[in-house]
Amino acid sequence: MSVEPLAGYTIGITPARRRQEFAAALERRGARVIDAPAIRIVPLADDSELRAATLRCLDTPPDIVIATTGIGFRGWVEAADAWGIGDELIKTVGQATVLARGPKARGAIRASGLRETWSPESESSSEVLEYLIGGDLDGKRIAVQLHGEPLPDVVRTLRLAGAEVIEVPVYRWVPPEDTAPLHRLIQAVSAAALDAVAFTSAPAAASFLRAADELGCGDAVRTALRGSVVPACVGPVTAGPFRGEGIAVLQPDRARLGALIREIVEQVPLRRGVTLPAAGHTLDVRGHAVAVDGELMPLTSASMALLREFIARPGHVVSRASLLRVTPGEGGEHAAEVAVGRLRTALGDPRIIQTVMKRGYRLAYEPERAASRDGGWRY
After folding, report:
1. Average pLDDT, whole number, for the chain?
2. Closest of 47, 39, 15 to residue 168, by C-alpha
3. Fewer CB within 10 Å: C terminus or N terminus of the chain?
4. What residues contact 16, with CB distance under 8 A and at least 6 apart?
5. With 50 as the cut, is the pLDDT of residue 176 above it?
6. What is the Cα–Cα distance from 70 to 370, expressed in whole angstroms?
7. pLDDT digits (tens, 9 = 90+) for 276-323
8. Residue 209 exposed, middle or buried by CB count within 10 Å (0-12, 13-18, 19+)
9. Which region, left, alpha or beta, applies to residue 83 given φ > 0 means left and ψ of -120 to 50 means alpha?
10. Per CATH, the architecture of 274-372 is what?
């Protein structure tokens, strides 16, 4: 039988945009998704900061305009249209030297009837900066179209080179109006109660960590992200807040949502799953479920905790006392026996968990089968 690659895994997602698309893609692959936006977007038409920056550009036209993203540049033009100054903005930008950070920004520029002067091969702000500081910037006015994420190093370097910089904050991020879903996700991460949490923007990553600190569980969250919970980021900019704290992240080669989804599908089972043979069966232990011979068996949290005790050292005897530490409730050794019985029932074959008289229980691990598969088992 075929089991979806993410079946049995729980993944948290935090984007403000494309949440439904992201969640649906993961759910189609079997994941249980916790949707908790870490930020929200300020509506362009209501954004006083964007309007003020636009009017500055119109009052004293810039010499250079840097378009960093396609959606951001289009949003800037659309907002100006809504304010009745769209044509004036296009005319002003058209008189400047226009730089596009990448192909999407270049496409947005051309869609507005303009042409870029130059665009880097790498889609990198650093390469744009290198191009600019190779010339004389003293006294130049430079408008930098932002897209939610500030570019402090770029802006600071341009100002040190003598330029006057106008930051154009298209699609500013602010905390979500309803913080309850985000707080629940943070608490789940701090308890390592899910397998991965995904981010598609640096502001969302920074907001997530800041909210964790405000809840008083920042240390626990960082410990989980360095351990059993996989942080997945769409690209290096998004990963910045985590890497700044020494947290390694999962990220695709290309900073695209589709590439991030493929990376999660491939890597989360490798990092969070355990596959091993027991009692003539193949067990694929996942986040909150186990696939036995290709058939998914959802487990209660108590049964999953017991199973993880057995797979921690497959084939070794686990004492009843050890099992009692992860068995809720009271009842002594009888409680452990009941819990093991429930686990056996859930697995479908009682032989998978063997009783070792007067000592405890063990997983009926078969290392000889694992060795015969040329290293094909994951552990």
Report:
1. 91
2. 47
3. N
4. 37, 38, 39, 40, 41, 173, 176, 201, 204
5. yes
6. 51
7. 999 999 999 999 999 999 999 989 988 999 999 999 999 999 998 888
8. buried
9. alpha
10. Orthogonal Bundle (1.10)
On the question of pLDDT at 331 being above 80, the answer is no
Per residue in 336-354, pLDDT (tens digit) is: 889 999 999 999 999 999 9
Degrees, nearest 5: CA angle 260-34-19: 55
Rounded alpha-carbon distances, angstroms, from residue 45 to 42, 91, 146, 170: 9, 20, 16, 11
pLDDT for 213-234, tens place per residue?
999 999 999 999 999 999 999 9
In the chain, the N- to C-terminal Cα span, in Å, equals 21
Q: Which two tokens stand for residue 56?
A: 């500055």
Q: pLDDT category, 237, cuts 50, 70, 90?
A: confident
Domain ranges in the chain with CATH number 3.40.50.10090: 10-39+176-272, 44-171
- Protein fold of 44-171: Rossmann fold (3.40.50)
- Classify residue 201 as exposed, middle or buried by CB count within 10 Å of its CB (0-12, 13-18, 19+): buried
pTM of the shown model: 0.75
Q: Which CATH number fits domain 10-39+176-272: 1.10.1740.10, 3.40.50.10090, 3.40.640.10, 2.170.150.70?
A: 3.40.50.10090
Query: What stretch(es) of the chain map to CATH 1.10.10.10?
Result: 274-372
- Tokens linked to 157: 């370097």
CA dist 50 → 21, 46, 68, 70, 72 (Å): 28, 9, 15, 16, 11
